Amino acid sequence: MSATPYKSFTGTATDFYVAAPATATLVNLAVRLGRPILVEGEAGCGKTRLASAIATELGVGLTVMTVKSTSQAKDLLYRFDALRRLQDAQIPGNTTARHVHPYLSLEPLGHAIQSGTPQVVLIDEVDKADIDFPNDLLDVLDRFEFDLEDLPRDEEDACRAARGFGRHVSAPKDGTRPIVLITSNREKQLPEPFLRRCLYLQLDFPEDQPERLADIVRKNLAPRGESVGDTLLAAAVARFCEIRAQGRRQGVRKLPATSELVDWVRTLHWQGRKEDSLDPKALDALDTAVLFKLRADIDAYKAGKDEDGGGW
User: Fold this and answer.
1) Are 234 and 210 in contact (CB under 8 A)?
2) Which residues contact 275 (CB under 8 A, 6 or more apart)?
3) What is the bridge-based pairing of β-strands 78-80 and 104-106?
4) pLDDT (tens digit per residue) in 48-88
5) 101: which of 58, 107, 173, 224 is 20 to 30 A away, CA to CA?
6) pTM
């Protein structure tokens, strides 16, 4: 594998994120191979924050593009402002609107490809878009080049002189590919050709790693100047894992994850709760409001303690 301008990612060098060693290894492999990383995992497990952690630790910029149901792949690459061109065409004596290139601009992914500078690009929630969206990104993510189909060929020289790019945009020969992370919540199946171009990363909740969970909480509390005693934190982590286990048995649709754990520990601290008060079988209304996001999940969880005479 060839050398890259990016230093090695450890996943532990920021004050807000703790990545598993296997996650850090896969990120470094993706950088060396020049492949995008498809990141999946339950909501709240840190998919989006992983991109921030990589950018922060490596000391490079971060560009975030949130995909919507109406998004097209072209929206990530460039923009043609047809409305402004139409408005300019109504102005007497304005000759600019005779051309297309004054109304073209590169969008974040397109700019990242053209600049060839080290950076992290996050394409968030790719599964929200139509199936054509990932298909249209195939060649772009494979070769890191694309064409501006809206630019007439006879305007290419003028566009290059005025805008700094022509009809075909590609990374400089001596440039650097961005680190591309693509998150998915599995709302729909992604096409296999798209999947083949990515390295796959599944972020699981580290239920069997209480010390790592405690470290995650500490790092998230530190920026606000908050601190929690080790005894309370250890008890909260243990009880939280029990709550997840019971929720799984009861068929809870959205299990509480890392973000809910941080919020719950913060809430316990504000309430002055002690470790001996943390009973998964006796969650109060505030506990369930912080831990669960759906009324049906709260009802399902409570049903567990009401079965068999109130026990689990």
Assistant:
1) yes
2) 231, 232, 234, 235, 236
3) antiparallel
4) 999 999 999 999 999 999 998 888 889 999 999 999 999 99
5) 173
6) 0.80
